[in-house]
Amino acid sequence: MLSLFGSLPPRGKRFCDGLSRRSFLRIGSLGFGGAALSLADVLRLEARAATSPPRHKAVINVFLGGGPSHQDMWDIKTEAPSEIRGEFSPIATAVPGVQIGECFPRIAAKLDRFAIIRSIVGSKGSHDAEQCTTGWSRESLESVGGRPSLGSVLSRLCGPVEPSVPPFVRLTAPTGHMQWSNTGTPGFLGPAHAAFRPDGEAMSNMRLNGMSLDRLSDRRHLLASFDALRHEMDQSGTMRAKDAFDAAAFDILTSSKLVDALDLSKEDPRVRARYGDGKPFRFQYDGAPTENEHLLLARRLVEAGVRCVTLSYGRWDSHENNFDLIRDHGGKLDQCLSALVEDLEERGMLDDVTVIAWGEFGRTPRVNSKGGRDHWPAVSSAILAGGRMRTGQAIGSTNRLGEVPNDRPVHFHEVFATLYHNLGIDPATTTLVDPSGRPQFLVEKPPMRELV
User: What confidence tier does 30 reach under pLDDT thresholds 50, 70, 90?
Assistant: First the structure.
């Protein structure tokens, strides 16, 4: 169960939305992910949000678990031999002089809204999402719990936008290879800043067990019950009372706003059709399905107040049948990723929301005997949009065979520094104190000068 109690920023610091620690402490004592609100404040803010929904910065991080083939997507090698080049042809894009793989015609037509990085370096070669959610290898600070993911950092530094909506949500279907469904841990920040997963036990907690709709409409009864719980906890201090308080607080604070965001039946059918559903799921094996609607859910969650949504999309570990896999996964990603960027732009959200899609490493330049490409940590790629970045460009390049960067190698830390910058966080000055008492910088490199 998600803990509702978390630590506040250090004295003198401010939250991402400009709220000071002092003013935050005045609000109350109940919340989650670093937030604290009384029930009366929750109800007042709910009413205010109904008329003026808050604007906030957010990130949607799409993890392409397994390592997508950079040569068949964003870095087509037209001059390489056939055993390197593979089966796909390049297509022109909305950006003069920039070509991408033929499986991505929708993105090509809107590439002025995207930026491609073709020269990402620093991969440790691990089959997990660690570097794509933290910027660091999983061994970094392992002795004190590991590095926190970006979503957990936002939970710690900024708290929730909406009192009833968690700042960090993880949309992942269970996978046979567990590391592909673990898209972001709290690391040394602890479980108070873990991602909320809207499935299983968490979904069952979104109901006020034993309360009818009539009783829910009686705000005074609800407030009285809440005060009784707080009084019981103050008097006894037992774990039983704390557990009851946690459960009741969670049930109330997750109210209708989060539940509504997760209910796709409330979405315009035309918008759902634009994203598609990604079915039938093929080449899934031990990985994630191509759940196109997860990207639509991500938009709805950000709209509801979530600061960071991470999801795992597809299984890109193409040791065999690489080209069939790219045709299937690539075509589906082309549909939902382009739809997401269109949707955000139409809703006036694109400047505030950064979207990134990438995997843990690239694939071998040479095609193997099974028509596949194997692991290649030497270089990989990413595609980004939104966040007021300078889009409409391809950054970096690889050599003729797609083996190593030819120019402008981009480290994972630079990508994360850019994401933090887009969120209003200065990675050069912001630190988090680890359990040993040492301040830790979020990353060790500056934002990408080409984008910010």
Answer: very low
